[in-house]
Amino acid sequence: LGVKTIAQFFALGWLESPADIFRLRARRADILALEGWQDKSVDNLLAAVESKRAPDAARLLFGLGIRHVGEVTARDLMKALGDLPALRAAAEAFHAYRMANPQGDEEKASPFKARMDQAAKDMFGVTDQFGATVAHALADFFHEPHNVAVWEDLLGQVTPPRYEVETVASRVAGKTVVFTGKLETMSRDEAKAQAERLGAKAAGSVSAKTDLLVAGPGAGSKMKKAAELGIEVIDEAGWAAIMAEAFGGGA
DNA sequence: GCACCGCACTAATGGTCTTA
DNA sequence: TAAGACCATTAGTGCGGTGC
């Protein structure tokens, strides 16, 4: 279900909201009647849709396209809050707070910003790379009736399991890890999930704060930057060894 | 106030799969 | 087997968050 198919289905009036994707199975015959669609491709599409009935909560949140809420922030929010209803509750609480506690006549911009940033961290439970700007974006999203309707419709079609990450002791616990290049034994998502289970943070870019770079074939600028900063670089086999060590030989 | 860090976002590219 | 589409990934840019 890529860009072109979505555009085609949208033009046909079959997709007006994200939840409509999960109602496509009722249109099997209609899809089959379209040029370029045969049994196999229709079955594959509908099977792929059905396989997403219990999506990863962080991935679903990222997919909503809320401003400032990308892949990393979505994961941080779900780690802190556990599920999507809790996120909505936090966003609504932040909206209530900002309405009840506007910038005072005597309050300067800097203290006001600090107060809102702290309220955002307290209400959403995220302290790293999270402040009032992201909280406002979430509050704005849930304050818009159309968004709430789409949200409720979508959650009527899918049931994301509670977002829980069980961590084990490892030599990368508390460290920042970056993956680059082509990973041959796991997907990028799997690699990031493994890093989380090892207590590490999977970042997207290399900086002086990066502790470890896991580089597969085809690594480019990140590899070069890591070398310039003297950051430890290992290959996928080295990462597998760390996993095996943490999980007692079975990764 | 400023510099740095890290994330969001976009465009481009190569590999894989399905159709015709 | 060529063409078309999706997916995973990269590099680059802009901007918000953080800490001094």
Architecture blueprint of SSEs:
Blueprint: H1 3-11, H2 28-32, H3 39-50, H4 57-63, H5 71-81, H6 84-100, H7 109-124, H8 132-143, H9 145-155, E1 176-180, H10 188-197, E2 201-203, E3 212-215, H11 221-229, E4 232-234, H12 236-246
Parallel strand pairs: 1-2, 1-3, 3-4
Helix pairs in contact: 4-5, 6-7, 6-8, 7-8
The chain binds a DNA duplex (20 and 20 nucleotides) through helix 1, helix 3 and helix 5.
Provide an overview of this structure:
The protein is mainly alpha-helical and 251 residues long. It folds into 3 domains: 3-50, no CATH class; 57-155, DNA polymerase, domain 1 (Orthogonal Bundle); 176-246, Rossmann fold (3-Layer(aba) Sandwich), CATH 3.40.50.10190. The chain has 12 helices and 4 strands. It has helices at 3-11, 28-32, 39-50, 57-63, 71-81, 84-100, 109-124, 132-143, 145-155, 188-197, 221-229, 236-246, and strands at residues 176-180, 201-203, 212-215, 232-234. Strands 2-1-3-4 form a 4-stranded parallel beta sheet, sandwiched between helices. Helix 10 (188-197) links the parallel strand 1 (176-180) and strand 2 (201-203). Helix 4 (57-63) crosses helix 5, helix 6 runs antiparallel to helix 7 and helix 6 crosses helix 8. 22% of the residues are buried. The mean pLDDT is 77. It binds a DNA duplex (20 and 20 nucleotides) through residues 1-5, 36-38, 40-41, 44, 67-73, 117, 128-131, 133-134, 180-183, 187-188, 203-205, 207-209, 218-222.
